[in-house]
């Protein structure tokens, strides 16, 4: 392996190993198996691909194996997942997804057929492990990577992709705008087990020397075809930025903050013509249909500040995205809708309701939203708050925001912090929505915590490395991993311990129901004291 | 100054300076003044005390000046703020608070009188700058500090207090359980400009060698009096943990996780007697009344995991806290109610509604809540999500959670991260609640961002140091501070820039209304192109 790729991280995540669940028709779905000290194990959804499989051989020059080679063979008539679903067919991708989500394949098919879920799988990206985006399924997280004219290299971006999926990113967008866009994307696609999204207008703009007035439908179309051929799974298209909406942004506090949105606004103004993305939208649908590329209809007029949230420009564009959704679906092309941006908490739910109403429940894919503008350096948190809220309300996929948002390009650490923050938001939303499998992991971790199985607690965490490092900072010695206390309260102040004492006492004395306990306590309390009912307590707060 | 106190941080926060607003009757309320590069300034609420005043002389051995010396002189008849408010009197503390919050003093008085807000000011803590906790006012943040038997010193804890209020903590709780509890508290109180809270049962337990069975009302009472004399402003009292509620926790996944709750549960079991905190509650009220110490009625049975949220044990205790609230108020003692804990998002709002209904709208003071159990190492985030949600619903003060929660004692960096995270949650809630002053800072920062006033953007941030450091990581050179781009997109890809071009173009051509713009654009678009309508774009996402 060449030295330039040395930095890609491989190997199992601490405390777990790669395993596979066998589905029908020879389908093998990867999972991450966490071994617990009590002999049990806990399986979790796994996005990390072969990189965390100790048995896999990774060669970044050769790329990943073509997992889905031949899968499309039996559906030449209905090339897209949407067309198949409409025809009542359950594709291999749907079966894979059903095993992965722990649901019936019929549910997958029905949600895809009605457009409420998408399976982004370009026929030219056979390396990908199929996944589904829709509000009936686990909430997904996207990580943005990509170099700019100012900084970073192909190798760094591939490393960020592998790093992002290690920590749970379900899809990755390559937003490169610098040199070697094609080569960077090729390297990412061939090595990515997750769907890759792009914004083709970035590359188109590079081709015309960054002058938006020089853009044309033909140049854009050729760029899209180039990317479809490479295997891009979904594409952001800002086809809702109409000429008549541009003036609606003039009085905004922060105008147009979407790159794609501002490129198209500039083009519309320069030509005083309607956006070529809008006027040629049906042709675009035909191209995407041939490869089963999914539309991610971009919100080019999303608010860039609390002040501009839910304004006329934003909502006008959203309504147009609904119109485009219906056109795309008529062409059997899958559609997601992108959402804001910067939105105060009280205006978040309205975004979901309007999107569902106007865009016929197409999966909503939102950036944050950031719930305040005042914390640059912490926008993973300002937006994590909004992300959890909007996902609870029905958003299907969350685009992460890193601590560097508004300030600089994310490095490796920022990518991890962004992904973990958004995994938290997504999982909190899944719990709130009552997803049938979500709470199992919380219960497993809390039980490990209560029973002082420190290693299990670390292994069940979203980030075992950090959990253990924080613990070891104050209590590094090996015995502390099995100690019945932590550094916060010390050995004599642990509430977990006293609770266990109370419980043991109740069980030993047959006090297994509330009534029995109440009846028995008068008699038994003396014993409890005699046995040394000593309190030693925990964890936090008061 | 002795070397042991060298680590206390003094000096103005980057980009700002201490100023004062003059109120009636010679009251001077401290604020933080952020100077902007356009000659304007932006004032923000300031919790940091004299430590950020470049003109102040700090001597930790002597303590802070007694700001409120003599203020109680004119209300001997009504010693507590609640008694004064009920009598229709506006105290100096209420006037101070009104200036600080930017509202009418009558509103402050009325909210205190009906028990919906509290002003925690022990008559023996004259160093404190009065503040108010209530849902009609800015959402407040508490930071917990305190050493344990395992780690940390008096000096470290004083430093953490000063550090926490520098970043915006409105109150600080000293949860020390190790040696020298009295001395640590004394040093903190004499140097604290914010209210200090404690949990007296911790010290009481130390006095009996950590054996809860040895606790007694008399010992507890004497400990409370000792702390009242020192100047503690509010005290957590777990008087709602009744004997009959203890069995309700036996079947929980994580039992009792509150230290105070488990101490009292152990005492009740050992003696098979009703909690002495409950049976002696009226006597306790009389003690607190004499010093105007505020009750923070503790939720000793709060859930320690998602599984245990909103269960019978938790809600039974909450109802008892309501009963105790009415007793305390009858004694003219101010009351807050503490809340959970670990709660999934869909069960958060119910906590606020029940608290308001059962506890007559006493200010709710919640720990998080954590919205999932699966992310130790990131519990500032799991709980920041819940904190924003519960504050939007009406919680008046949020108790922070640091990244070390469940894993170890927070260090200085953790304290800062916890405080900033909770300032974000509090501010996001204030925006969502439509607080009349909240959005000004968002607008000021977003305008600075849009106009590429990088230094102003840093200065207006919750954490100017981190914002600037992140920016400088990729673009350290001095000219980048005034550059019209950032490292994410580079000079030719900035949407802020194109938006400004669109706006300038519109203004130059008299296109100042939507109609005028629409009418004029056909004619003008040629010009825009001729003038080089070049796009250079931004910031994030797509």
Q: Can you describe this structure?
A:
The structure is a homodimer of 542-residue chains. Chain A has 542 residues and is of the alpha/beta class. The first copy, chain A, has three domains: 16-111, no CATH class; 137-435, Radical SAM ThiC family, central domain (TIM Barrel), CATH 3.20.20.540; 484-533, no CATH class. Chain A has 19 helices and 13 strands. Chain A has helices spanning 81-86, 92-101, 105-113, 154-166, 181-190, 200-207, 217-230, 259-271, 276-279, 281-291, 312-330, 348-358, 379-392, 412-432, 439-450, 454-460, 464-474, 495-508, 514-530, and strands at 16-22, 28-35, 41-45, 117-118, 133-134, 140-145, 171-174, 196-198, 234-237, 294-297, 335-339, 364-367, 397-399. In chain A, helix 2 crosses helix 3 (105-113), helix 4 packs parallel to helix 5 and helix 4 runs parallel beside helix 14. At the A-B interface, helix 8, helix 13, helix 14, helix 15 and helix 16 of A face helix 8, helix 13, helix 14, helix 15 and helix 16 of B.
Summarize the structure.
Chains A, B: Its EC number is 4.1.99.17. 2 copies of one chain form a homodimer. Chain A has 542 residues and is of the alpha/beta class.
